[in-house]
## 1
Amino acid sequence: MRPLVAALIWLILLGGLTLYMTARQGPNRAISQELSRAEGLYSLVLTPTFDVEPDPFALQTDSSEKPAALVVKLNGTELVRMVEKVEGGKTIRVEPIKGLVQGKNEFYFEASPLIPEAQRSEALRVRILRDGRIIEDRSFWSEDGVRIAETFSVNLETSKPSQENGHEH
Amino acid sequence: MLRALGSILALIALMAGAVDAQQSRSADRSDRKLMIVCSTTQVADFTRQVVGDRCQVHCILAPGADPHTYMPTPGDAQMTAKADLCIQNGWHLEGKNWMSTLAKDAGKPIVTCADGVQPIELETQGEKIRDPHTWLAPKNAAVYVNNIVRGVAKLDPANKADYEARAKLYLQQLRVLDSWIREQFNVIPPAKRILVTSHDAFNYFSQEYGFKNQAPVGWSTGSEVGAGMTPERFKAVVNSIRSFGVKAVFVETSVNPKLVREIAREAGVEVGGELYSDSMGPAGSAGESYIGMMRENVLTIILALK
Ligand SMILES: [Zn+2]
C-alpha cells in the first residue's frame, strides 16, 4: 500500500509541475499541419528584361556570403538563389517545383536591376506551367531601378488549378 | 494521508515559486538595454536604424563636429567603459584612431563599418591611404549597415531576426535613395558635374554619380599624411574652376568655410551652399538623418550647378 501511495504522490507532483510549466508557456506552440502535395508536374519559368545583378543593398548576415541577384521563395522556403549575374532576356527554368501543396501556395520574387540602368522601367516575367500548360503568366515591374520584391498566390485544386492574386510592392 | 498531501502541495508551490523567480531574474537581465557607443553621427544613425529601441545608442561626436580633429574627453572614456559594443567608421576618419583607442583602453569590442567597402586609394607623399569617406555613396552605406547588423547580432543573438528585419527595410530605403539621386542628377549635364568642396570627402560620391571633384584641403582636415591645405592644391582648385567654368563651390557643415569663401572670391564664383560631409545636421534639421543629409546635399548641388 505504502509504495503505491508514494508512487501516486510522485505522479501528482510531476503532473502538477508539468501542467504548470505548460500553462506558463502559453499558446506559442507551433501548429503543425500536414499538407498534401499537389499533383502533376509543375515548372517555373522566369525571364527578366534586364540584367539581374547581385544586389549591393542586400542584407548579408554572413560577410563571406555573396549577395543574391535573384531569389524565389515558395511558401517561405527558398526555391532559387542566384548569386551570379543573370543576363536580360535569358530564361531560367525550375522543374519540378518542389514544395507545392494543394490549396494556396505563395511565391515570393526578388530581383535587382543593374544600378546604372536605373532610369528605365524593367520587368520580371514569371510563368508557372502544369504538365507543360501555362497556368499563370504575369510580369512584375520595376520603376527607376527599384528592386522587384513581389508575392503572389496560386491556388492549386486537385483537378483544375485556379488562381488567386496577392500583391505587395 | 492528508498531511502528506498538504506537504506535497506546499512542495509544488515552492517549486513553482522557484521557477517564477528564475524567470523574473532572466527578465530583469533582458530588461537592461545593451549600450552601443558610436563615433560619428552617420554611424550612430545607421545603428539606430538597425537596433531601434532595443539598445541605447550614444554618439561621441555632436552634429557638426569634425571627426578628423576631434580629441576625446574623459566623459567619452567613461561612456565607452559602460558600453557593450563600440562602432566606428574606421580607416583613420577618426583622427589618430581615437575611437579604436577608446574601445581598446576600455576592453570593448569594436565594429569597423568601412571594412568590406571597395576602397579608393589616395597616393600621397609615397603613402597609400584608403579614403575613409565611403558612406557618401549609399551602396557603401549598405556595407556599413551589414557590418552593424552582424556586430549587434553577435552581441545579442536572441534578437538577431529583429535586427535583420529592420536592416532589410533600411537597405531598401538606401536603394531608393540611390536611384533617386541618379534620377535627380540627370538634369546636370556631365560637363558641369564638378564638385568643389572644402576638403577631399566626396571621392566615392563623385565616382558613383559621375562628378569630378576637387578640394583645397586633402582627405583629412587634421595633421595626417596627405591632409590639410597646400598652396599647390589651392592653386590647382582655382585653376580648374576657371578652366572648367565651374558655376559654384560648396562649403561643408563640419569644416571652417573660410578657405572655400577665399577660393570663391579668387576664382570669381559663387558659394553654392553648404553640404553635409563628415557630420549630419542637428536634431530637427533636414540633415538630421543620413537619408536627409544626402537628399539635402543633392538638392543643394542641383540648385547651384544646373
Ligand atoms: Zn573628412
## 2
Amino acid sequence: MDRGRAAALLLCVAACYFVTTSAFKEQDFKKCETNGFCKRNRGVKGTKYSVDPASVKVDGAELTAVLINSEPQEPVKFNLMLRAYGPVLRLIVDEQPSEHPGRYQIPDILMPGLKQRLTAWKGQSTAHTWTGSVGDVTVKLTFATFKLEVQVKGSPAVVFNSRSMFNVEHPRKKQEGDPEGWWEETFNGHADSKPAGPEAISIDMSFPGSQHVYGIPERATNLALKPTAGADVASEPYRLYNLDVFEYEHSSVFGLYGAIPVMLAHKKGQTTGIFWHNAAEMYVDVETAKEGQAVQWITESGVLDLFVMTGPSPAEVTQQYGVLTGTTAMPQLFSLGYHQCRWNYKDEADAFAVDAGFDEHNIPYDVLWLDIEHTDGKRYMTWDSRLFPNPVQMQEDIASRGRKMVTIVDPHVKRDSNYYVYKEASEKKYFVRTKDGTEFDGWCWPGSSSYLDVTNPEVRGWWAQQFTPDRYQGSTKHLYIWNDMNEPSVFNGPEITMKKDHLHFGDVEHRDIHNVFGYYYHLATAEGLIHRGSNVSVYGEHGDRPFVLSRAFFSGTQRVGPIWTGDNAAQWSHLAVSVPMVLTLGLTGLPFSGADVGGFFGNPDAELLTRWYQLGIYYPFFRGHAHLETQRREPWLFGEDTTRRIREAIRGRYALLPYIYTLFRHTNQTGIPLMRPLWFEFPDQPALYGVEEEFLLGPGILVKPVLQAGAQSVDITLPEGAVWYEALGGAAFPGKTGKPLTTAVHMDAIPVFYRGGVIVPRRDRPRRSSAAMANDPFTLVVALDGSGKAVGDLYIDDGRSFAFSKGQYLHRRFIYEHGVLTCDTMPQPTGTPEGTLPSKLLIERVIILGLPAGKAYTARSTVNKMHSVVSGAGVDVRLAKGSAVVVRAVNLPLASDWSLRLLEGVAAE
Amino acid sequence: MGTSKGVLLLLLLSLCLASTAQAAASNVIRGAQPDQIEKYQPVNGKFTCFDGSKTIDFNLVNDNFCDCPDSSDEPGTSACPNGVFYCRNKGHEPRLLATSFVDDGVCDCCDGTDELSGCKNTCIEKNSAKRDALRAKIDEYKASLETKGQYAASAAGVREHIKQRHANVDGDIAATEQELQKLTADKKRLEEETEVKRVAHKKQQAELAAQRKAEREAAAVKATEEAAAAAKAAEEQAAADKAAAEAAAAAEGAAGEGAAAAEHEETDEERGRRIAAQWTNDPAAAGPASDSQAAADEAASQQQQQAVTDEAAKDGASYLSRVYSKAKESVQKIIGSPTNADSAESDDADSAAAAGDEDEPPLPYEEPAPEDGDTDEPDWSMNNDSVNADPDYEPFDDSELKKVSEDASAAERKLTELRTEKERVARQVDLTFNDAWAGLMNKCLEARMPQFTYKFCFFDKASQVDNGGGHETSLGLWRGFEKGGTEAVFDGGDYCHKAPARSLRVRLECGSEEKAWDASEPEVCSYAVHASTPAACKTDRLKQLEDNMASLLAEEAALAAEIAAEEAQRQADLAVLRAKIEGGGAHDEL
C-alpha cells in the first residue's frame, strides 16, 4: 500500500472517474518551447566547430580527428570518427575521455558482424580538407568551419553542418548563475532532476536537389514531411519520443508510440538515408531551402552516431538499413491472416459466438484476441475465472478449427505481493527505480504498478521464462501475445510516461533509453515465445516462430515482430492517414505493421467500415479492433450487403496470402518493404514523389483506396512505364504519370491493378483460415508487360517453425516469355541455404492478362500434357466481370521444374 | 450381411437416388443435395450449370476445378467460391455446408463426408443430447411423482389443520386485541416522559459541542505541524531501520493530507486515474475503484497491519504505526469524520469488491458515524453538520420507547393477519379435493408480465398487480378445480365493465416444482395463466416416456449397424473421388 493511494483515498474527488474527454490533450504534452534541450538549440546557427588538421588520421576504414568547439573561453575537444561499410558511412562524435561518466550508447541494436563490412578509404588531405572515397561514394571533410559532404557518383547526396547548427553540449560542473533549466526542469508539476545537466546534440544536414524527405515515424501525418521551419512556416518540429497519446490527431507533427530515427531524402537518381543510432528524445525540423531539403536534428543526450545509407535507389537504402539493424523476422503464416480483436470479448461464450459467427457467415479469420479485461484485475498472465473459467478448453476448441488466440500482456506489473510476477520480480529487484533507487510505483490499468527494467539482459532472460504453460497458467501452444502500453505508458507520469531521471540497469537514466524501452520489452516477450517453442515434444525440433504485437517500437523492432499504429479513430481522416503511416514504417525498416481496421475510438458506419476492410486487407498486419465503449462491429452486424462486401474483401486477403508470404520472405532477406510508395518503384518520376493516396503492395499490385464518404469516382495515378490491368475486369490501361485516370467506384471493391510484367501467385479457394488452405492449389496471375513478358516467384515453407532457416523451403521462380511459362528455382542471396521441401502442391490455374482474348488457345506442358485453355469474357469465376486467357486445371507440380507453352488455335486430337 | 444390404437399398430409394439399374455407387455426386440429384444426371454426356450459363462435359463435374459461375459444377469439392455441400448425417440432422469447409482439415459434418482424408462418424453421438434430454425428463418425472405421493400423504393433516384453525382463530384474535390495547397505553405514557428528557439532553450536548468546536479550531493549525513533525521523525527512524521505510512513507502521506486539506493538489493516484479515465468511462476498466471510505479504511488497515506484523521490523514498525495513527487522528479532527456525503453516494458494495482481499476489520480508533435516524429529529438547535462532524457527540438514548412502539406495530399486523385467516379458513373448511392437491394448500405463485404481475394462492384468491404503481385488482376467490383437474379457477373478482366480474384460470401441467408463467387475457376480464406442479403429474405419461426411450435406443442401435454396414461402400466411393480429384492432371483434358 503506497502513500499516494492512502492520500487519494481520503481526498479523491468524484471527478476522478467521470470526466469524459474527447480529444488530444495538448496541455498534457511538451512543446519545443517547454523542453529545455530543444528550446536551447532549435534554429541556432553559427556554432564554431572545426577539425584540428594535425589530428586527422586514417587507418583503413576509419578516419579519426579531433573536433574543437572554440566558442567557450576554454575550447572543448571532441573525438570524431568516420567509417565506411561499403555504401554505408558512419559518423561518430563523442566526448574525449574525462572524469565525467561517458555518454550512453545503445549496446545491442546494431547487427553483429558489421565490422566485417568495413571498407578502406582511399583518401587525400589538403591544408583545409580531407577527401576520401569508397566505391561510388566520396566524402569531403572541410576542417574550418567543420563540414562534411557526401557525394554519390559525383552528385551531392547530403551535407552536414552546412548551416553551422552542429552543437554538442559539453560536460560541465554546476555553477552559480547557470541558466534556468540546465540542472532541473519542471513540466506540469513533474520535476526532472537532470543530474548530468545540459547534454544535447544538434546537427543540420541538407539534401541538395531533393524535393522531399520521408521517414522519422511515428506520427499521423503525410508521407512527404511538410516543412516545420523556414520563412512563413510556424510549426512545432517533428518529435521522436514514444508516448501513449490519447485520441491522436490525424494530421500532426506530434510523435506517437514509437520512434525510428531514420530519414530518407529522395531526388531523381539518388535516395539517401540517415539513421541516428540514439534512443533519447529527438526533435527534427524540416525546411525547404533553395538547395533542397534542409533539416536540423536535435537530441537530448547520448552521442552523435549517424549512419548514411547512400543508396542510390530507394530499395538499396532500405536494404542498407536492413544490414545495420536487421530485417523483418519471418512471420508465422497465420499472423498474415485476419485478426479479430475487441476491447473486450467479454467471456468464453462471447469468444465462441464470435468464432462461430465467422464460420456461419463464411468469412475467413485466423486469430481471436483478448484485451485486458480477460485478466484477474489486470494481473497479466492470469484469467478472470468468472469470465474465463476454462481458458485451456476454449483455446483448444478454437484451435480445432485451425485458429489461434492472442492475449494481452503489458509491461506494468500490479503491485500486489500475492501476484507471483510482482512478488518474484520485486524480490529480484527487476523493476525500474526512481532517482533515489527505490522501486518505481506508477499508475496504469491495474492501479499502482511497477515496470520491469527490460534494459537489463538478466530481466529479459527471466521474463522469457514466463511463457511456458507451467508459468503462464491457462495458456496453450495456440496462444500468442500482444504487448501494449510499452512506451512505457504511466498514467500519472510526465506526458503519460516515465520520469527521465528514473534509473535503469547500470544506473542509466531513463532519458537515455526512453525510445528503446518498448523494443526491449517486445524482444523479451518474443524470446519468451521462442523459449516456449523449444519444447520439442510440443513444437517439434524446429521450434515455433514467435508472434508478439507491440505498440511501441524502435530501430530493430522489425527483427522481433509487428506493430500497429495504436489508438486511431473511426473517422475517414484516420482511414486516410493510415496509408502514409504504414508506408513510412515500411520505408524505415518496419514493414510488418497496420492500423486498426474500423478505427479504435468511435463507431464507424457501414460505409467507412467497408472501405477500411477494403484497404486493410493490404496492410501487412491486418486486424480489426474496437474500444470498450463502442458498438459491436463484427463484420456481419451491418446488413447483408456489408457482410458480403467485407467477406469478399477478407477473402481477397486470403487469396493473396501466397504473394504476401513471398513478399515477407523478400523483406526477411533484404529489408525491402511490402507496402511501397509509387516513387519507390518509379523513382525517376518526380510527379510521384508526393503521392500518398495510393501505393503498391510488392512490385505487382497497385491499390487505390477510397478515402471519402460517398465517393462516386476516384482519380487514379497509374505510373508511366508500365501497363496496368484492372484486377476484377482484367482491362489494360497504359500508365500516364501526371494524367490521373478518373474511374467510377462502387461499394463492392476499391480499384486495384496488376502491374504488367509481374506474376502474382494466389490461392483462390475461400477458406475459414490460413491453416485450412494448406493443401489448396495455386493460381498464377501472369500480367504481361508491353513486350509480352512477366516474372514472379512463390515462396513456401511450413509456415510456422524455423526449419526454413535450415533449408526446408521452396522458392520457385516463374518467367513468362515468348508464350512460354517456365517454373524453376528462384536464385537466393548468398548465404541462404538451398531450399528443399517435399510438396504435393499444384498450380490449378494460370490467368494470363494482356493476350488478345478473342482467339483460341491450347497449352502443352513439358510433361507433354495438353491443357484446355479458355479465353474471352467470363472465362473464370474470379474474373466474371472481365476477360482473360485462362489455362484450366493445369495441375502442374510446384516442386518441380517445368514449362508450359501456349499455342494459338485448337490443337489436333 | 443380407439384412444390411436390404436396409441400404431401402435407404437409397428413400433418398430418391437414381432408381435405374445403373445407379452404381460411384455415380453418387459428392455433396449434391437430394432435391438436385436429377440435375446431376448427364445429358448427352454434358452438364449444364444450374444458372444455365454454361454447358460442360459431365466429367468436369466435381473434377476439382470451378467452371460454373454459380459454383454448381463442384458441389463436392472446394474448387468453387460459393458452392454448397450436402451432408446426409444419417442418424442426426442433414446439413448444408459451404464448400469452403470441404477438405479443409476440419470435420464439420457428423457423418464425416466433408473430408476425403476421413473423419469419424459422430452422428449418433451427436444425438446424445436428445437422449440425455429424454433421460433427464424421465428422471424428473419420477421425482415429481414421488412429490405427488408426499402431497397425497399430507392430505389428512392439511384438512385437520384447517379445521383446527377454523375453531381457534376467534380466540387468537381476542387475545391479540387485548395485547394491543396494553401496548398502546404503554406507548403513550413513554412518549410523554421521553420528550422531557430529550429537551434536557439537547441543551447539554449543544453546550459541550460549542466548547469542543472552539478547542478544535485552535488545535487545527497545530495538528498540521505535529503531523509534519511526526512524519519527519518517522523518516529519521526509517533511515536507521530499512524494513520500516514503507510505514514511514505512510506517515508522510498522512501529513501530506493534512497540508492538502486546505488547498487540494492532485495526488499521484488522482493523476493516474484522471488519465485512465480518458480512455474509458468504465471505472472498473480504469484501475481498481477505491475512493469510498470503506476502501480507505481497509487500505489503511492493511497498511498498518502490514507494518505491525512485519517480524523483521517489529519495534520500528509499531512505533511508526503509532505515529501514523496519531497523524491520521489529527487529520481526521481537522477534516471531519470519515463518513461524508461523497462516500455515502459511492457504491460501497462495488468498492468493497474491488478492494478484493483487503477485508480486514476497521481500525479500533475509528468511531462509528452518527446514525441517519438521528438527523431527522425535529427542532434540532445545532447545525447538523457540525454536530455530526463532532466525533465526541453523545446520542440521546430513547431505546425503551422505540421498543414499545415496535411491539405495538407488530401486534397490529398480527391482528390484521388473523382476521384475514379467519375469512379464509371459513371458506376452506368445507372444501373437498383429491388428496394430491393438498400439497398446494395456500401455496402462492406469481407470473410477472411486462405491465402486470399475476398472483394467486391455491384454495384462496387471485389478483393482478400493476408493476408501475403497485395497484392491486382482485381476480376473485377460489372456485375449485375444473376440466378433470387440469385447471384451477378463481372468480368473482373486481367489477368489469360490460363483462362478468374478473376471473383467473390456472392451466395446470406436470412439473417438478410449482411455477407460474405466461399470463394472458383471452377474453375481456377473464385471465389465464400457466402453472406447473407435481400434483398434476400422471403415472401413464411416465410409461410413455420410458417407451420413447426404449425405441430411441433401438433406433440408434439399428442406425449404428447401418452406418457400419455402409462404411465399406462409403470408403470405396471416397477412393474413386479422391482419385478423380488428385489425379485430375493425369487425364488428357482435351
